[in-house]
Amino acid sequence: MTGLPHSSPAELRDPPTALDEDGAMIRAAALAKYRIVDSAREAVFDGIAELAASVCEAPIAVINFIDRDRQFFKAEVGLGVDGTPLETSLCAHALLEDEFLLVPDTTQDARFACNPLVTGAPYLRFYAGALLRTPEGVAIGTVCVLDYRTRTLSDVQVRTLRVLAQHVMAQLEHGLASRQAALAEARQRAIVDNAIDLAIVAIDRDGMVVEWGTGADHVFGWDKAAAIGRHAGFLFTPEDRAVGRLHQDMVAADRDGRARADRWHLCRTGRRLWCSVEVTPLTGRDGRQLGYVLILRDRSEQHRVGTALKVAEQGQRWAQQAGRLGLFQLGADAILHATPEFCRLFGLAPAATLPAATIESLILPEDREHAAPLWTADGLGDGAGVRELEYRIRRAGDGVVRWIAHRGERLIDGETGAFRIAGMVQDVTERRVATDILAGNEQRYRALFEAFDDGFCIIEFFDGPHGPLSDYVHVEANAGYQRHSGIAEIVGRTLRDLAPDQADDWIALYGTVLRTGEPIRFERYFEQAGRHIEVSAARVEPASRRQVSVMFRDIDARKASEAALRASEALARENIERVQLALAAGAIIGTWFWHLPTDRFTVDEVFAAAFGLDPALGRDGLSRAQVVATVHPDDQAGLAEAIDAAIARGGPYAHQYRVRRADGRYYWIEANGRVDHDADGTPLRFPGVLIDVEERRAVEKELDRTTAALRALTETLEQRVAERSAELMKTEEQLRQAQKMEAVGQLTGGLAHDFNNLLAGMSGALEMIGTRLGQGRLGDVDRYLDAAQGAVRRAAALTHRLLAFSRRQTLDPKPTDVNALIAGMIELIRRTVGPAVTVETSETVGLWTTLVDAGQLENALLNLCINARDAMPAGGRIMIETANTWLDRETARAHDMPEGSYLSLSVTDSGTGMSADVIERVFEPFFTTKPMGQGTGLGLSMIYGFAKQSGGQVRIQSQVDVGTVVRLYLPRYDGDLMPSVDHDGTRISSRAGGGETILVVDDEPTVRLLLADVLEDLGYGVVEAADGISGLRVLQSDLRIDLLISDIGLPGGMNGRQMAEAAQAHRPGLPTLFITGYAEHSVVGNGLRAPGIEIMTKPFAIDKLLTRVGELIAQGRKAA
Prior knowledge:
- The chain has 34 helices and 39 strands.
- By secondary structure, the chain is an alpha+beta fold.
């Protein structure tokens, strides 16, 4: 590429660490001026990086700035970091170039070959960067692209990178200019705002106030909000308004450039102020007059010095008394000049002067060391500035201790040079008492806060990168909160830092509390702390603080108690239910009561009768040993263990075992009871019942047997399911095949009629030509030839459409004019849907190009039209529309697509429509609303897959009994519609120029005859072959062959493509022209052709055939 610095040995320089220190300092100063290093990401720079990556087709693009010890990435694509150390920088080398650095292969460039980013991950192989240079000529960084493979850039891509670099610098300069302008405006505003003695007011040409300085607030009492938008006449007295004084000033300012006057003006209270006024015209930067500036200074004191002075002195005395504020001056002679209020604060009688030692004597001894120097001559010192201190005094007269706030400033007399201290004192006792109380309360609160076992914290919301109120920080937290949450040192940390994965949920939860003011309470298990926590949250008022208080309470113990209670209740319910069932079935065989301290076991008469006991003995009581003696020997140990456990723990008891009853047989029973303890835990009572479970045990045994049988059946069920699944998969495959045939079946009726018409036209025209030739009437031959050729062309067009629709090709996206595609197949659509359906089109002028497989798109459009027809059994209207569409981020997200430019193709019908639940399923494979046998349910799913594979989307809108709109979104393609063919400016001749010989291979004699005659008429030698084997023999001979023309489908076991491939071993690079009745892409399989191979589909025009032959032979000559 011309004009770019490629890597070469002569251009090798030292690594970037050799950049001189002076240059680094200059560069660092320039970067500091722009404030760019470590700045946040900005959309405009991100867009530039993305555009660089897109235009240069590179996986990595960076806008970087070279600092003294590192490079900072302001924007990047494909890296995911914001900078790297300078020693690994590739971009630093670009600073040594004039404008641009291009390195096609970094491994072959000594500057980069050993760089760890080249020798290791990410294995960079290509670099190109345009320099970022300031207006002063300082190189500060680059806009660069990188790739993992060796490559280069086109001139357009290089120019684009340079333009993008210029755009980056323009953005930096714009930002710098904006900051400087804002700073200048701020300075001007500060000047105006700080001139509080001057009322500066700007008015427009109509006298309306447009600006109101801070000094105007001070002078006139109106604030800015009240003044702006009003006519400036409100500042003038009634008599001046009557004579139009403001207008007179404006006229004088226009005439003389400035108008001055001294007169009365009105303040907000209606009081009159004597002001000096100056009015000057206000012009903009373009010289156009915007209005006028009024500068007014209050000179009322010169008119009312005496009265105003008295009023001021009285007002000062009132202010000092109300605020307990005394003023003083202390000279080098240690004599105080003080106001009356000063004297009253210290309990002294008012006096014009008094010794400073008097004040010093009133200061409490513990405060005198640091406060007494303020009242001595030495306290003047040599320094300057303000001295502030608070100390205690014992007031003269009543002896009350008071806190005094002292503020004194060291001043120098301009005439004598003498020093003095001027200042004020104020009684702040109440404030100090309140502060001490507050401090004590705060200390007690803090102790309680930290000792509180429950967790407590205050969180404060703030606006973060994720939006308003999108994060919060922990501003306070006690030890209990950190213990319950499982997070140490939580104060000062944000939620997104602590738990980024859970942040959105917690922010939404507490954010609702902040917005609504409604408190919440809930329970949650915290894995960090390993415990159950009850959380309560409430807003901290006022809401403007953006704070929420959160309390955590450990409820593990309560949870455990609740679980134990639930378990106990469940067991009790189970026992009650068991007893109730036993009662209903008559299964209870007795009750007992066991008094544990005396081991006295009493039973009822039912119990005694069942076990053959004397009822009297049952009433008097048995021992535990006597009862256990009736238990089956094998069950006695387990029963004893169960009884001991129940007595030890207390509460419910249940156990099954066998006992010997009165008939001498052993029966299964279940004992249900409860052990009661007294307050100190001593076992007291053990009541219960016996239930006959013999029959239930038999049922359980039978259930076990049945379960085993079911398990055996389940083991054979898997094999049955597998066999049924195989049958289902076979049926699905048959359905898919049926889908492929469905669309062809839809075409059959209309196309059969059209082909019969075309064949009739061709055969009739040929018969008439034969008749006229026999009659010698040659004048009508041309007319019949034109008719026959027209029928042939229409038949060829239909054939091409059918081949494209039949999808005898792989997906082959090409730039496609969709309007032209619709126009080319509209007649096919109309014939397919039939005369009962009207087909209309609405095509957008200037429709964008899209990159799709045209055949697949035709297939999709035809299927949509067939579906629309089927939705209108009584006929109707189909509208096919195209449009250019831009989808913004929100709309694209709703459509599940990237934002950007799309071409839309929609098919609208006036049919029966679909309900919402049907629309949700229409893209599912095998889902169909058509009657059995009339649809496979694969059509829309295939259209959906085609649209997604093409980078687009399909959306459906439908309303029952109104109709349906199916809209395909296809991405816009910005390239050329049809790639141009470069013939090097050479005119291709279709006549033989040097005895060229052409081999024609076709199994159709008529085609061979036609081709041979046409080619021989142009001077070519022609060799014919009827099959692939014969053609290959000719190609393997020594006969001169300059071009191979062959059909694809040939008999004899070798097709045309196989023959051509086999011939390459003997005649490498032989130009080949395939002629076929199939679609072009069925010849090459994957959609790609080797150089020197062309394809034409039958039928074809003779002149196009001859042009193609001439081009191929010309290419063969060049190659030779």
